[in-house]
């Protein structure tokens, strides 16, 4: 579901044109102007995304669909000690150069310490690609906690984070720094017409251990209704259980 509060938001879908395949959805996102933060990025993974056709260019840039003054900027990250952490990652969009380039829009980015971005989060990104190869379509939502005060880093949290990261100076950022990153995953098997769902909760620090939880529990923590387009009976069934055999936990 889209955000229902009073903050100004943009809901954006990025497309690319892929030859004979025509116009394809790359990913969608919701951007909160008041908080200057991504509320979530969502996308699909299926057969064409599992091959590698292009290399990443690391060309970070403002999102052309949103005014520059309503986004984060390069100045926010410069000297902050934070990496520009993807939500829809470059590694999931190596089918074409156009798709890959769009993942570097700053609205698809959250500030992450590199120990998490290249550690627990990077490992989870690799697992998503493995899970995508086990089903016909994997629906992916990725985000970070930006609303609840207890889920946002304060100055003490940043100092502790910097110590764990092994940095000599404190981290700082002009906007919100989340305490947690998370994923909501829904795998669809076409032959059996079955769904399997998984929530992942990843504490934002170096060496963190992600928690595998039900979608229902993830919804309780975030206040977001995931996969609401499933019929009610199906939604309730997949959101209240985890198929350990499929997810390999």
Outline:
The chain has 249 residues and is an alpha+beta fold.
Question: What's the topology here?
Answer:
Elements: E1 9-17, E2 23-32, E3 37-45, H1 74-77, E4 83-86, H2 97-102, E5 109-112, H3 114-117, H4 120-132, E6 137-144, H5 155-165, E7 180-189, E8 194-203, E9 211-213, H6 215-222, H7 232-239, H8 244-247
Antiparallel strand pairs: 1-2, 2-3, 3-6, 4-5, 6-7, 7-8, 8-9
Provide a descriptive summary of the structure in words.
With 249 residues, the chain is an alpha+beta fold. The chain has helices at 74-77, 97-102, 114-117, 120-132, 155-165, 215-222, 232-239, 244-247; strands at 9-17, 23-32, 37-45, 83-86, 109-112, 137-144, 180-189, 194-203, 211-213. Strands 1-2-3-6-7-8-9 form a 7-stranded antiparallel beta sheet, sandwiched between helices. Strands 4-5 form a two-stranded antiparallel sheet. The longest helix is centred in the middle third of the chain and has 13 residues, at 120-132. The two termini are 28 Å apart. The model has no long low-confidence stretch (mean pLDDT 94).
